[in-house]
Amino acid sequence: MAGSIFHRKRRKLKSEINVVPYIDVMLVLLIIFMVTAPLLTLSVDVKLPSSSAKAVETRNEPIIVIAYPDGRFGLKLPEAKQPEVLDAAGLEAKVAAIRGEQGNELRIMVAAEGSAPYQKVLDAMDVLRRAKVSNVSLMTNAGGNAR
Questions:
Q1: At CA 86, angle to CA 108 and CA 84, rounded to 5?
Q2: Torsion angle (degrees, nearest 10) of CA 127, 130, 132, 137
Q3: What are the pLDDT digits (tens) for 37-69?
Q4: Which of 121, 108, 53 shows the shortest CA–CA distance to 78?
Q5: Which residues cross the membrane (predicted)?
């Protein structure tokens, strides 16, 4: 027996990837995404803040541009009691004429009705930019503890 040789049978190595753990992870992720997807919302309700800051004291009254919900604009001059209703081209021409008279001291405040979308305010500011007005402010109602 001293001369007998034991040969072990060698196994051939597999060169395949075991994908079972990857499938398990994929199924767990699928379940997580299926549970969380209905909880996500696509829109966010935004409530714009109100200010409690004091009003700015000025020497002269500013010109007020009002943005209406239907796309029209109002121009309220300091000496006028009611705003004049204009379209965008009329507002631009009138403000450009006033800017020519007053120069860089022209102050304009943009206001909007409560039901007007913010896009109308941006449209009014765009008209003022085309009229080359640089001193533009947003007008708000005093709220909170403003004095």
A1: 70
A2: 30
A3: 888 766 666 666 666 766 655 566 778 888 888
A4: 108
A5: 21-42
Furthest-apart CA pair in the chain: how many Å?
A: 126
Token pair of 145, please?
């503890």
Tell me the one-letter amino acid at 58: T
What's the token pair of residue 135?
């001193």
What confidence tens digit (pLDDT) does each residue in 135-146 have? 888 887 655 444
What tokens does 121 get?
A: 């305010």
* DSSP SS3 for 93: helix
Length reported for the chain: 147
CATH number (3.30.950.10, 3.30.420.270, 3.40.50.11540, 3.90.280.10) of 63-138 reads: 3.30.420.270
In the chain, the N- to C-terminal Cα span, in Å, equals 112
